[in-house]
Design brief:
The protein has helices spanning about 15-25, 30-40, 65-75, 100-110, 135-150, 160-170, 190-200, 245-255, 275-285, 315-325, 325-340, 340-350, 375-385, 390-405, 405-415, 415-425, 440-445, 465-480, 485-500, 505-510, 520-530, 540-545, 550-565; strands spanning about 50-55, 80-85, 115-120, 125, 155, 205, 215-220, 225-230, 235-240, 260-265, 290-295, 295-300, 305, 370, 500, 515-520. It is α/β, with parallel strands linked by helices and about 575 residues long. It has a four-stranded mixed sheet with strand order 1-2-3-4, covered by helices on one side. It has a three-stranded antiparallel sheet with strand order 5-6-9. A three-stranded mixed sheet has the order 13-12-14, with helices on one face. Bound molecules: glutamic acid.
């Protein structure tokens, strides 16, 4: 590490600083050098990026958290770097038991698995730990002591009332906070500090900010570009009265010692970058690179707003699991809003593994990606349409066991039958896109089971009830589920002339008055009788799978209906 002597207040007494450091942190016997050696720079190839996710254990995984996690993960992966997870549990009030496990499980369902840090089973892996901030107190105190010894931090004994009073005094000031003439405790002598401590007063540790209000802090954000803001002049709190670090201090110490190269986080932190870079400097650390992600937006009316945990069910990552969106589809969709060139890449690399896409931080939206559930639905239909029936069955069965007893029961009657049903029209050149999520399946396959088949005899096109009776009576006698597809279809065509229809759609179009309908209308009648729907996948496959008994029963019931309705 390099030494930042220029920040020491000129003419101050270094012996006093050392004494003060010893007074405040009597139990700390390590030095920053100890930790520098313990956590050496990582031995990675040139250009490898080390990123992290630093969740606070609140238990709620927002889609924005998954998005940020994926961004960090991809950034590390495309550079053969390291992605790790550090739990930021310094705010004990917000801490919820078991929350970390819930979050990590949520992330791992989308393939965001850490190389090191806190693992989904809450164990810790890696040689840069501990990766839970509440276990790192001694490390923070070592660096805090070091800052005090150099005159770069000091204890503040101001009570909550005194701080309130400062706030009141600053009502008309542009810059608010503990600085300049307001930073009373900056001026305390060692003797005064000792007196306060002996009197049992609690203290926070503050940074003695070396910032100059007339100077600018400039940095190049990997997503937002060049940013300029005034230097930090506030003597921010580094350690709270209970000795626990603030986010700012822990961020600098942890990201340095864990050898993070790129800090990717929500843009609510962007205003703190001047402070963070200053902390890196006074601590003698090489600064990290920052990439600030704008919040995920949602269209509303003519404008847009943030995707909200309160208003939008899809803000919770659990929503996708409950609805049964396959994680591959969510990932695919996420990438379309994460990198503007992903869709073009996908067009040329239709079946390529998503992990081979060259993700790039610089292609991220500056103003916030727009979330659109209709688009997710389309993407998901595509993803599911190219899965095999075995995959669809396995993934939806797993989902059903947790969320749909009805689908589970249908599947468990006969798994091979269920797979065969899901296999209808799969593998076609233009696969059907009926299923967007596993919760759609129950309806999609309902007519393949008597217990969920819903009779509905409404017809479309040229078909009417009278024609239906004629068609079904003929079809009933000739349908044979052992026929091959051509034989089956020829039989349907053969019905046509006997009921005043033509097997030739073109012929019908040329002379519609000559016929009651065409082969499409005849098929519709059969389709409706067997499935209760006018639009289904391949009717031949449906007929064969239903089997002779169901086919006969359903035709009989349809004839009954149409005759009764005449
Ligand atoms: N614990 C912080 C948060 O939850 C993490 C911010 C960061 O990534 O540095 O907002």
């Amino acid at each position: 590490m390099y030494f930042v002597g220029k920040f020491k207040t000129i003419g101050e007494n270094m012996t006093d600083y050392n004494k003060l450091a010893q007074l405040l942190f009597p139990d700390i016997d390590k030095t920053p050098d100890y930790y520098e050696a313990l956590y050496p720079p990582r031995d990675l190839k040139e250009g490898a990026r080390v990123t992290r996710l630093a969740p606070s254990p609140t238990g709620f995984l927002h889609f924005g958290n998954l998005f940020a996690a994926m961004t960090s993960y991809k950034t590390a992966k495309v550079s053969d770097g390291i992605f790790y997870i550090r739990v930021e549990d310094t705010d004990q009030k917000r801490k919820i038991e078991g929350a970390v496990e819930v979050m990590l499980e949520g992330l791992s369902a989308y393939g965001v698995c850490a190389d090191e840090g806190v693992m989904a089973d809450s164990s810790q892996k890696g040689s840069y730990g501990p990766y839970i901030q509440s276990e790192r107190k001694e490390i923070y105190h070592t660096y805090a002591k070091h800052l005090v010894a150099q005159g770069l931090a000091y204890p503040c004994f101001c009570s909550a009332d005194e701080l309130d009073e400062i706030r009141t005094q600053q009502e008309n000031e542009d810059i608010k906070g503990y600085y300049g003439k307001y930073a009373k405790c900056r001026m305390l002598s060692l003797e005064e500090i000792k007196e306060n401590i002996n009197a049992g007063k609690t203290w926070t540790l503050r940074l003695k900010s070396p910032g100059d209000i007339n100077k600018k802090c400039c940095f190049d954000d990997m997503i937002k570009g060049k940013i300029e803001m005034p230097e930090n002049i506030i003597d921010v709190v580094l350690l709270k009265t209970d000795g626990i670090p603030t986010y700012h201090f822990a961020h600098a110490v942890d990201d340095h010692l864990m050898r993070t190269t790129h800090v990717i986080r929500g843009d609510e932190w962007i205003a703190s970058v001047a402070l963070h870079l200053q902390l890196f400097r006074v601590l003698g650390f090489k600064p990290v690179k920052y990439a600030h992600i704008a919040p995920i937006m949602k269209a509303e009316g003519d404008g847009k707003r943030k995707l909200s945990k309160r208003k939008d069910p899809e803000a919770a990552v659990t929503y996708y699991k409950q609805e049964g969106y396959p994680s591959a589809a969510v990932n695919e969709y996420m990438m379309t809003i994460m990198n503007s060139n992903f869709e073009d890449w996908r067009k040329v690399n239709k079946t390529a593994d998503i992990n081979s896409f060259p993700f790039n931080l610089k292609k991220m939206s500056v103003s916030g990606a727009l979330f659109d559930i209709a688009k997710l639905t389309d993407v998901s239909k595509n993803v599911i349409s190219i899965m095999t029936a075995d995959e669809v069955f396995a993934l939806s069965y797993e989902w059903a066991k947790e969320f749909s007893p009805k689908l589970t029961a249908l599947y468990e009657q006969d798994k091979a039958y269920a797979k065969a049903v899901l296999n209808i029209d799969r593998g076609n050149k233009k696969p059907r896109k009926d299923i967007a999520k596993w919760s759609d399946i129950l309806d999609y396959i309902s007519y393949m089971y008597d217990e969920s088949f819903e009779e509905n005899y409404e017809l479309t096109g040229n078909a009417d009830y009278k024609l239906a009776v004629q068609v079904l009576k003929l079809y009933k006698n000739i349908v044979d589920i052992n026929d091959d597809k051509d034989t089956w279809f020829n039989k349907i065509k053969e019905i046509c002339p006997s009921v005043g229809c033509t097997p030739n759609v073109k012929a019908f179009k040329q002379n519609p008055d000559a016929f009651k309908g065409h082969v499409g209308d005849v098929s519709t009648i059969i389709r409706v009788a067997l499935t209760g729907r006018t639009n289904t996948p391949d009717l031949f496959a449906i007929t064969a799978l239903l089997g002779a008994e169901k086919v006969q029963n359903r035709i009989d019931r349809a004839i009954q209906f149409y005759e009764g309705a005449k």
